[in-house]
Amino acid sequence: MFNRNAHIPLYDRKKMRAILHNVSKRGLQTVYEENSTKYSTVEELRQHIVGVVNWFNLVNPERFGKYKQQLNEIRKDKTLWTT
């Protein structure tokens, strides 16, 4: 038997939820500084966030649309999204 929908592991969902929360509270630059060993530039972190959120939305837009919505809210606030 197969699942009806594609699956995103809970670990990945929690990790992205935490990243989005931290960016919304402290800004992209601060999150990058805390994770600079994982990402070589702020732009790489930004692309990673956008890519993962788009992947979530592609897999199941009804369930993971909230991640896209949160990302759009963060992008509106230039102080959080720019460096």
List keywords for this structure.
83 residues; mainly alpha; globular
Q: Can you tell me about this structure?
A:
The chain has 83 residues and is mainly alpha-helical. The protein has one domain. The protein is built from five helices and no strands. It has helices spanning 10-26, 28-34, 42-59, 61-76, 78-81. Helix 1 (10-26) packs across helix 2. The longest helix is centred in the middle third of the chain and has 18 residues, at 42-59. The relative contact order is 0.18. The mean pLDDT is 90.
Topology:
Blueprint (H helix, E strand, L loop, with lengths): L9 H17 L1 H7 L7 H18 L1 H16 L1 H4 L2
The percentage of residues in β strands lies in under 5%
Residue windows where pLDDT falls under 50 for at least 5 positions: none
The overall strand count is 0
Roughly how many Å apart are the termini? 48 Å
Shape: globular
Mean pLDDT: 90
Count up the domains: 1
- SS-based class: mainly alpha
Biggest sheet architecture: none
Query: What is the N-to-C order of secondary-structure elements (H for helix, E for strand)?
Result: HHHHH
Question: Helicity, in percent?
Answer: over 70%
Concise account of the structure shown:
With 83 residues, this protein is an all-alpha fold.
